[in-house]
Specification:
10 helices, globular, 9 strands, alpha+beta, two-stranded antiparallel ribbon
């Protein structure tokens, strides 16, 4: 991050944030407000923000603690955003009260329009099916090349995609698309923020519930029971689970090889639960 250029814009840069979500820095805005700065090399992110911010405004009006974006501007050949700092810390295994609050926030995403699905896909369902069958950002290759076990998991994922129809997956809501515990801020038993909405898109908001349950799998939380009660069609639920196994296992192989064994075991448990 170019500190001198930021000072020209009035931002005093602080420290970089860690965790699974990289590329964020604390800073102070020209009016003294604590903010989080994020920079993307993608100039098209300006269009993403233009479609996203009204959705976040509506979520905030519904009581969901999402960031308020103070500025989005071209910067160093990319796009810079400044969002108001939200208090709290992430926890790997939140309390039941926080889990209940997150589930209520996911329900509030129903009926909110968002940016188009990624990869130029016409619908949310088309994006899900294409990712399962063809892949996204090279997701298939790590599973194909890691070992015979992950290659077999990939075969099962592709089989789910081959049987799926994009029209099965409903639209009509906002999907965070990366709702894991690092993106949930907590103070005691209070949910103080849901962050990192940059990949959000129009689609089936219940996907986020499945992702949240998947992230908490192995922590003795009854979130899968809540998923089961959410009314997601079994064939749609299987597609979302296959999508998550693909995404998380591929990411572990590429970025965290020490975590592949845990991801592989989790995939087996969830596949068995839902007959994949």
């Amino acid at each position: 991050m170019n500190r001198a250029r930021l000072l020209e814009l009035g931002f005093d840069l602080g420290r970089a944030f860690g965790g699974r979500s990289q590329g964020a820095w604390s800073a102070t805005a020209p009016n003294g407000t604590p903010v989080v700065l994020k920079w993307s090399e993608d100039t098209a992110m300006a269009g993403q923000y233009a479609a996203l911010l009204p959705a976040l405004d509506e979520l905030r009006a519904r009581g969901v603690p999402v960031p308020d974006y103070l500025q989005v501007t071209p910067f160093d050949g990319g796009t810079l955003s400044a969002q108001r700092f939200l208090p709290g810390q992430s926890q790997d295994n939140p309390s039941p009260a926080v889990i209940e609050a997150v589930i209520e926030c996911i329900a509030a995403q129903d009926g909110i329009a968002g940016p188009p699905p990624p990869d130029g896909q016409p619908t949310w369902g088309a994006f899900v099916v294409r990712t399962l069958t063809v892949g996204r950002d090279g997701m298939h290759e790590p599973l194909r090349s890691w070992n015979q076990g992950t290659e077999a998991v990939l075969d099962r994922i592709k089989a789910v995609g081959a049987e799926a129809d994009p029209d099965w997956c409903p639209d009509g809501g906002l999907v965070h698309l990366d709702l894991h515990t690092d993106n949930i801020l907590i103070d005691g038993d209070t949910l103080t923020g849901i962050i990192d909405w940059e990949e959000a898109c129009a689609g089936d908001h219940r996907y986020d519930l499945v992702q949240f349950a998947f992230d908490l799998d192995g922590h003795d939380q009854p979130v899968w029971d809540i998923v089961d009660a959410a009314g997601i069609e079994p064939r749609v639920l299987r597609a979302y689970i296959a999508f998550l196994v693909l995404k998380c296992t591929s990411s572990a192989i590429v970025h965290h090889p020490e975590d592949v064994t845990r991801q592989f075991a989790r995939a087996g448990r969830v596949f068995d639960r839902y007959g994949i």
